[in-house]
Amino acid sequence: MNSDKIFYSIAEVADKTDLPKYVIRFWETEFAEISPDRHSGRRYYRQSDIDIILKVKDLLYKQGFTIKGAKKFLHDSKVSSKNKIYSDFKIDEEKGELKPVQENKILTRFTFTPPADEEKVDVKKIIQKLSDIEDILNE
């Protein structure tokens, strides 16, 4: 299949993702991120749509997400942009699935770094000051 194409038919997407056409059509109704262009009653998918379909397939079939969970994951991961290319994943053309760019890379959504000692705040003092302010306002 020509990888320089801009648009793909549903049959090409079904072949590329190894999914039945009816599943792709159903996912369109469930996942707003999958939004093919429509002309003359036909669907035309961009590579970004295919990437999202492959991500959904991975979430549902391999990682065991429910549809609701996959929707939340996509929303939380900010992958809903139609033009977003997943920097953490690439398409395995042979298998039609997404693969991590780095096999051993650990993906995290949040990173927590404890504050340095000089940045630490005494919460008890802040609560006491707020309580004092509240008392003044209530007088």
Order of helices and strands: HHEEHHEEH
How large is the radius of gyration? 23 Å
Low-confidence stretches: 79-87, 103-110
- Count of extended strands: 4
Strand order of the largest sheet: 1-2
Helix content: 40-55%
What does this structure look like?
The chain is mostly helical and 139 residues long. The longest helix has 16 residues, at 47-62. It starts with 9 loop residues before the first helix and ends with a helix. The model is unreliable at 79-87 and 103-110 (pLDDT under 50). It has a two-stranded antiparallel sheet with strand order 1-2. Strands 3-4 form a two-stranded antiparallel ribbon. The relative contact order is 0.11. It is elongated. The chain has five helices and four strands.
Short description:
With 139 residues, the protein is mainly alpha-helical. The chain has helices spanning 10-17, 21-30, 47-62, 67-76, 123-138; strands spanning 37-39, 42-44, 89-92, 97-100.
